[in-house]
Amino acid sequence: MKSTRATQEPAWVRIVLLTVGLGFLFFFLGLPLVAVFVEALAQGWGLYAAALREPETLSAIWLTVLIALIVLPFNVAFGVAAAWAIAKFEFRGKSLLITLIDLPFAVSPVVAGLVFILLFGAQGAFGPWLSAHEIKIIFAVPGMILATLFITFPFIARELIPLMQAQGKDEEEAAVSLGASGWQMFWRVTLPNIKWGLLYGVILANARAMGEFGAVSVVSGHIRGETNTLPLHVEILYNEYNAVGAFAAASVLALLALVTLVAKTIVEWRMKKETDMLNAVLAPEKT
Hints:
Low-confidence stretches: none
Number of helices: 14
Helix content: over 70%
Radius of gyration: 24 Å
Shape: globular
């Protein structure tokens, strides 16, 4: 009885906490989001549509999507491999690998961009060799891809590591004992068990790839129509006092964020549903 009363707060306390939480979400998340669409449509649908049809805006949208599509397969391959190694095996350097996976969370994106310039810039460690072979990385799309890849690669691994650790190795070991090959074990046992966690990580990595600004800004060169992603294009338009164009481009990013949020919510719901079903099946066995 005492423990129950200790976790129950008066109604006015719950109302105050709920009001504060919702108020914070409205003023710091909801209101800015609404303001983006209001400003984008302030001068009518015609100017809004015309701003989105600008060749430079279309190029920025396409480049943003292209970089995300190139980066995600590498993220998936690395995330699954790293999570599998960390969760299923014991080896020297395991703690170091986990630390390196967390490195992009600790390093500023701007610093990451500067590191790539020091490596691949004209005066960088590999700059003379790249120039001699007419390979351009910095102030070109390859550098933007590398910077985005560095910023986004932890998301899938960080989502899968605790999931695969919680699942253990029993099912994989049973599959191998029954004669399954490594690929058969992965496709028929491991992948079905991690599919929702993998999809959740892909959604997060994709959102970060499309919205990345700091590292990409350093290595892009801000070349209109060539190396401007959508976030960089928004900044340029806003600095030129083109409010309609800037907010129109920003509204595309906001729509992508909303789609990501909906997809994230659906995946979380499916993950919770499958977990509840699994717990319901296992509950009679435990009793």
